[in-house]
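Can you give me the bound-state structure? Components:
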Amino acid sequence: MKIDNVPMKGLSSEEYEKALKITWKPNLHYTWDNGIGIGKYLQSLKEGKILASYCEKCERIMLPARAFCEMCFRPTDKYVPVKDTGTVNTFAICHVNWDASRLKPDEPRHIPAVIEIDGASSGQGIMHLLGNVDPAKVHIGMKVKAVWKPATEREGSITDILFFEPY
Amino acid sequence: MSFKEIIQLNTQLGYFEGQIPVNYQYTLGVAGNKFFETLKQKGEFIASICSHCGVKTIYPLIYCEECFNPIETYASVGLEGNLYSFTKCYRDYQGNTYDEPHVIGLIKFDGIKGGIIHRLNIDEKDLKLGIRVKAKLKPIKERTGSLDDIICFEKV
Amino acid sequence: MGFRKVAIVGAGITKFVRRAQETGPEMSYLASKMALDQAGLKLKDVEMVTLGTAPDAFDGVHMKGEYLLSGAGGNNKPYIRNFVGGGTGVFAPIHGWMHVASGACDICLVVCSEKMSSCHPHPQGAFLTIFDHTTEQPLKPTLIWIFALEMRRYMETYGLTKADVARVAVKNKNNALDHPSAQVAEAVTLEDVLNSEVLAEPVHRLDISPASDGAAAVVLASEDVAKRLTDKPVWIDGVGWNLDTAYWATKDLYYPRYVEKAARMAYEMAGITEPHKEIQVAEPYDPFDYKELHHMEGLLLCERGEAARLTAEGYTARTGNLPTCPSGGALGVGNPISATGLMKVIEIFLQLRGEAGKRQIPGKPRVGVAQAWGDLMQVGTVIVLRR
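Here's the bound-state model for the whole set.
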């Protein structure tokens, strides 16, 4: 048995433009219940703090705060605040948007990073953006601190932290 | 075992809003393209015919669901069919009330598997299962090769 | 362990393209029919069907499994869809394996199909909601973020350069020139890859596999049936799958521990104790070039941190000691998510039968491994095939 010839040819962009098509813009709008763990996490973000979960059995301080420990499968013993500083575990300098469109040359680059938060167990990180920093200077191991929105503007969202900056 | 701390006041329950912001363009497929091109240019429906087992299908397919052989034959079935079933809808798919109820029917064609679902423009006193109906099309200049090329089905 | 022996006895695949006119069911039909013809079977011989396809959001059809059913030969049969993100393409034959190994049936058709071109403005956008809706989506992440973050962690942990990683893209895109389904096969050089547009540092455009439309299928049979149908059955010797936490930022990204766990599960079943010696051909999942290296290490095919050096030395070339992605991989053939994984399984199938044509590796290989990966750095699915 050989597979030398395979069926199907693709359409070129011109052929695609000419082909009959149906278009549809779905109205996929959601309200996601926060749940218990994330509910507390977001509430503390509104108050300008980062909240983690503590599991006594595994002795882990986990981020983001969650209602149960997924390792030993017990409910969270208590919620504990952690610092709003951390260390960059990894980062990227991104030139594209979520829909694959390119950033314009004068738009600042997006710098997503995984930040290991001080006070949480080792390796417990969250994803966020870095700001107020020259992309060329960002490095793994860099110490960063959260820059918060003013209290009146905070809504209980991960964006209550505008970004993390070096300190 | 239950969670040790839960939110007690339901005024403190939170939710987060968001979207899945993608939109879609669907090609019609090889068989679908044939059907709608024919509807647009010639103003008639076509069915696919399996040369192995003889089964005819609307909407047409490039393969036979029964015997799984490829299909390359299509034949015109005109615009007339039989009303297999119908209903009267008062609300749209989002739950909003229509200004006027929509009457929708499933129309089948003699000797052909499958059918077409579309709007009916038939007096209530004439609406019965099995009546003969015919598609009313837009004039050729207005047809785009889509289901909207059919305005509705009417009693013959 | 009480499982019956199961073999792959036929395979089918469409071309992988950026946008197909064919609908998902039509693509599924083309691949399924080809697989059945190759196996010498008719649809009525198929007792059960399992179909793997990745998020409904790509094709834009809700309950995609049901939508694809008739083209996948599923009419009026015990038909079920499986889905585990990018790992689907290798999980689908594992799912099919369960159908036959358990004794539930003797002949099972496995199909994978993906039509990503329906998703606008770009299929990448459908991944926006793979991230946690509350703690990550508001930052407007792109799919490329996760890869760029993981790639940088991997590179820095082992002191790799971009060239070390880009060599994989060069190898695979060139390998794919010999694959009839290839969408983006190209005789690229290292400079081409390193000079291509930077999307998210350190990821360049040619480090990434494309979005694609395509379908693939295999026919699985029990031992008695397989031996009647072909004199070259390829046995599914080991299967493994493992998923990791969705809190993906809480584990170190430089090593895919879930791939290792899935691999160990498969190797144990196959009686393989020294994979780096016993595996003769490998198809790890390569949506980005660094992933091939990442997965080679997770599959225990080499020591951690060594994959890049071995690639530079030609170890993974078709004529090397452990040909890796001889098909051309996702980077060269294309990446219609679920169909890609199955394409890799099909490649091992053909290689072990000596029927891979221009892509055939020397030495009459008898044992190979295919692996897929997906989601938020979460899933490893592994299958070991043996002649």
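A couple of observations. Chain C has a mean pLDDT of 95. Chain C touches chain B at residues 19-23, 25-26, 29, 32-33, 36, 42-44, 57, 60, 70-71, 73, 75, 117-121, 125-126, 128-129, 133-134, 137-138 (CB under 8 Å).
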